[in-house]
Design a protein that fits this description.
single chain; 525 residues; alpha/beta; five-stranded mixed sheet; 22 helices; elongated
């Protein structure tokens, strides 16, 4: 069940793409419910000259600043509570991108950030998977913009690879001087270039034509209206075979001819010929029969995250923080007396807290529950002092009967339960005295926290502190947890899915896991 806010709030998402700027303002009521109250597109082409000269010209900077000032007026009019504004490919490559950011910050009072290609692809994936949450997950997600083609490959909804290709429509239009009607020789040159890039990055070309694909971006949406296939899951589709048949009609028309024939805006008419070549070539290379066009992109991904960010737990007051410090200090003191591996316990605590925080939108537990989870993480191996075999039961007994500062009443009973249930061999049951002593609400909380602790402990089962951090994407029910490993660390993910079953059952989620190797920078004195 989605958490609802006491009253709706307004949030805004701005995507400063290479071909145009887009602003969406939404009234948010819950994690899954909002209403679009304003949607504006400004035809500012950041990619103009940026891909050929490597910098923004004066007119582009002036037009961009004017557009953002108008965005600020709209945001103020709607009382926007939170926003995120991002710039993509053109801003990444322009040497004077910092000038754009400073002008917008000073003149429009908007903090614009230049995001990486990986972040751009992640936001598109987030929006796409949420749009297709009631359908089969796609094999490929394509996002064709003005500066790049972001290509994501997934297996059963789990990301297998993501790459940003320099095949954006504005970039290719300027590089091949294809501003109007496109001659056959020029079209063949563009197609050959696209194929060369695809072959260089996609060694494993799909063998069958059954792969489900999604195409995002304004160009894909426009071309889907000209070469539409049967609707899929209530969404429009682009038929690659029809696109191929109608390709030369699109290319033979100049910009004014495309405006008259297809009823599109001028800036769209200028690039749609190049877009048709790119999507046709990619569809042939990937052997695609159909591409779903869900009409979402970076801005919808931003909007989803902004909405979710408002659904956060209330900050603890001073008394709660003080009580938590006393409890955690008492738990650590008791763990020291029982000669627990404190490095391992601390790593389990950190992983458990990350899982608790990143999945908060699904469990909605309070700060006291978070503190109990931390205490149980510190004490989860306390029973090993008696016997490693059955240490989860010994640990439950020790904590239940110990005097630990700050731990008493139902909180002590719940902590003892978590220590018992962190081991997969013991399931929550009313035949256990500590669990039976809890009321129904606390039993539900115990099952959720046990699932989190069980998963955190399995991720740190080798006692090597190999995991740098966890990150979460996806939703609303299919969640991917990226396990980011430290330099040269390895982790066997076999069995982790089984340890996640209790948490999946309690939160009605499907969890999947993926390793991500991160290189941590070494600070030189």
């Amino acid at each position: 069940m989605a958490l609802k806010l006491p009253k709706p709030i307004s949030v805004a998402a701005i995507d400063a793409g290479s071909n145009a700027f887009r602003l969406i303002i939404a009234s948010v009521r819950s994690t899954d419910e909002w209403e679009i109250v304003e949607s504006v597109r400004a035809p500012v082409r950041l990619g103009h000259s940026a891909f050929t000269s490597g910098k923004f010209d004066r007119k582009t900077l002036r037009d961009a600043t004017t557009a953002f000032r108008e965005f600020r007026k709209l945001m103020d009019r709607h009382g926007v509570f939170a926003y995120r504004a991002v710039a993509t490919s053109a801003a990444r490559e322009a040497r004077n991108g910092h000038v754009l950011l400073e002008r917008i910050r000073h003149q429009a009072r908007i903090n614009l950030e230049i995001i990486s290609g990986d972040e751009e692809a992640r936001l598109v994936r987030l929006a796409t998977l949420r749009a297709l949450r009631n359908s089969e997950p796609p094999r490929f997600i394509l996002d064709l913009g003005g500066g790049s083609l972001e290509l994501n490959e997934l297996r059963r909804g789990v990301l297998r690879g993501s790459v940003g290709l320099p095949l954006g429509t504005v970039r290719l239009m300027e590089a091949f001087h294809a501003q109007g009607a496109i001659h056959e020789h020029t079209a063949n040159d563009i197609r050959l270039h696209v194929l060369t890039v695809l072959r260089s990055v996609l060694a494993n070309r799909p063998k069958s034509s059954t792969a489900l694909a999604v195409a995002c971006g304004g160009n894909a949406e426009t071309l889907a209206m000209l070469a539409s296939g049967p609707r899929a899951g209530g969404m429009g589709t682009l038929n690659p075979r029809l696109l191929r048949e109608r390709l030369w009609r699109i290319l033979q028309l100049d910009v004014d001819g495309r405006i008259r024939a297809f009823g599109v805006r001028r800036d769209r008419a200028e690039v749609m010929g190049v877009a048709a070549i790119v999507l046709d070539t990619v569809a042939q290379w990937l052997r695609l029969r159909q591409m779903i066009t869900p009409r979402v992109g970076v801005r919808e991904g931003l909007l989803h995250e902004l909405a979710a960010a408002q659904m956060v737990p209330a900050m603890p007051d001073a008394d709660q923080r003080k009580e938590a410090q006393v409890l955690l200090a008492g738990a650590e003191s008791f763990a020291c007396r029982l000669r627990c591996d404190l490095k391992h316990a601390e790593q389990v605590r950190l992983l458990a807290v990350q899982l608790f925080d990143k999945l908060w939108a699904y469990h909605h537990l309070n700060f006291d529950s978070r503190t109990i989870l931390e205490a149980a993480s510190i004490l989860h191996d306390s029973g090993e002092l008696i016997n490693r075999k059955g240490h989860h039961r010994h640990g439950e007994y020790l904590v239940w009967n110990a005097k630990i500062a700050g731990l008493r009443g139902w909180a002590k009973n719940m902590t003892a339960c978590l220590i018992r249930y962190h081991n997969k061999n013991s399931q929550p049951s009313t035949t256990h005295k500590a669990f039976a002593s809890l009321d129904p609400a606390h039993r539900k909380t115990t099952r959720i926290l046990s699932g989190i602790l069980r998963l955190a402990e399995r991720l740190e089962s080798d006692h090597r502190q190999a995991i740098a951090r966890l990150s979460v994407e996806g939703g609303p029910r299919d969640i991917r947890i990226h396990v980011e490993l430290r330099n040269n660390s390895r982790l066997d993910l076999a069995g982790i899915e089984r340890r996640a079953r209790l948490l999946e059952q309690e939160l009605n989620l499907r969890l999947s896991f993926q390793r991500v190797q991160v290189v941590e920078k070494v600070r030189v004195a």
